[in-house]
Amino acid sequence: MDTNNKREKAIVKTGLLGIFVNILLASCKAIVGLVSNSIAIVLDAVNNLSDALSSVITIIGTKLALKPANKKHPYGYGRYEYLSALIVSVIILYAGVTSFIESCKKILNPETSSYSLVSLIIIGVAVLFKIFLGLFVKKVGKKYNSGSLVASGQDALMDSIISASTLVSAVIVYFTGKSFEAFLGLVISAFIIKSGIELIAETVSQILGERLDGELAKKIKSTITSTDPEIKGAYDLILNNYGPDKYLGSVHIEIPHSWNAEKIDMMTRLIQSKVFEEHQVILSAIGIYSTDSQNAEAARLKQHVLEIAQQNPDILQIHGFFADLNTKRITFDVVVSFDSKNTKKVYEDFSSQVKKAYPDYDFYIQQDSDFSD
């Protein structure tokens, strides 16, 4: 079965399960809440309906994300999943704010609630259902890298806490006649609001574009350098994320200056094929750095430039070093850390140091950003 189809079916099945369970729980809680005159349980029922809506949004987002690429959107529609995750996160935040407001109203205008043993049992079973549903949905979401499912699973787990607290409050009312559910609702609402804000921040961060996972970057670079022993390094790996596990990017490789166009063409095609096969990443472009590792003088120059670079902790790396001794021309890239307070100044100071050390040479130094490990 195609990986995308398998992923889609798993997400849709999980979403449908969420819809069914949440509608069932909402119906049971609504009846209990109305009979017992409990605003907390009625709100919990409404919250279950919002969870069902979240599952619907997750399914729609997954379906839209799998639309084939076209002329208008040549990179596909994978980012729809991030938008659906954002919508689910907003629903969670809205549920938290609504619960907070209703809890405040309940404190200002308290009403007497009464519970039967049957209603307590129903709420208790609902708590167990919610816990198992939340754990299952979150597990599937992580397995298939679905932000929407992870958010829905987290929401379900938060709801189980709400239901559990409602149950505790109901038990207290049942045995003592005293109600603390409104105050408990305030505390729980705060947790839900916090969870919603965190999920929104996480999803927005993904939409903006995050640093490439360090392990993935190292694995891709290892795959590239293992393609041929003469490839001395892989640098400037940049991947653009167009949805969960959908990457399109570029990289530079350092190769001997003696390679001809035919070998470079063959090698870049082989690298593209291996990287896609092993990591499902499309490298749309592979740049070339030429190096002359056999020349002793060039090697000495490179070593000295490295020593100068190591004097500044904000300089992470230099690569693509090539020294043309005949024309007195040296080219290389320097990677400056994002943690530097002034990356431009670091680059300029380093360039000045190098040029001062070798005034007879023309330097072409390119400043690189710390895009990946």
3D structure, described in words:
By secondary structure, the chain is α/β, with parallel strands linked by helices. About 65% of the residues lie in helices and about 15% in strands. The protein contains ten helices and six strands. The strands form two sheets. The protein has a three-stranded mixed beta sheet, with helices on one face. It has a three-stranded mixed beta sheet with strand order 4-5-6, with helices on one face. Helix 3 runs parallel beside helix 5 and helix 4 runs antiparallel to helix 5. The longest helix has about 35 residues. The mean pLDDT is about 85.
Strand count, sense and barrel status of the largest sheet are: 3 strands, mixed
Weakly predicted, low-confidence segments: none
How far the N terminus sits from the C terminus, by CA atoms, comes to 34 Å
Percentage of residues in helical conformation: 55-70%
Count of strand segments: 6
How does the overall form come out from the CA principal axes? elongated
Mean pLDDT: 83
How many distinct helices?
Answer: 10
- Content of β-strand: 15-25%
Quickly describe the structure:
The chain has 373 residues and is of the alpha/beta class.
Notable features of this structure?
single chain, 373 residues, alpha/beta, 10 helices, 63% helix
